[in-house]
Sequence to fold (127 residues):
Amino acid sequence: MSNRATFIHHIGIAAPAAVLDQVVAFYDDILDLKPGYRPEFGGLGGYWLYSGDRPIIHLLEDPNRAGDKSGHFDHIALRCQDLEAVVAKLEQHDIKFSQLETKEVNQVQLFITDPSGTSVELNFAID
Fold:
């Protein structure tokens, strides 16, 4: 029997309108994810943030949330490249982060929070 789910298509983040543009700028400045094409969803505001030609973060305006988490959702995790450049961006933007190196899996992780309050884990392979 084959797996029916093969990869994460996208992550959805709901944010109040007051911070929507800050969230877009955060992912653009720190991870170079760019806003791109997004279909019309009946007047619901938002953005699709692209890595190359893939919209991996779907950001939607949700005026009824105030940073509350959705159910038991805890964080998103992204595989990233160029640890030094990302750390420099975080420091340049005065974004607090913690770092964990796990040699058993050849990985460095950075833990940050975006302006909507979503916890984000950034994973970098150790050469």
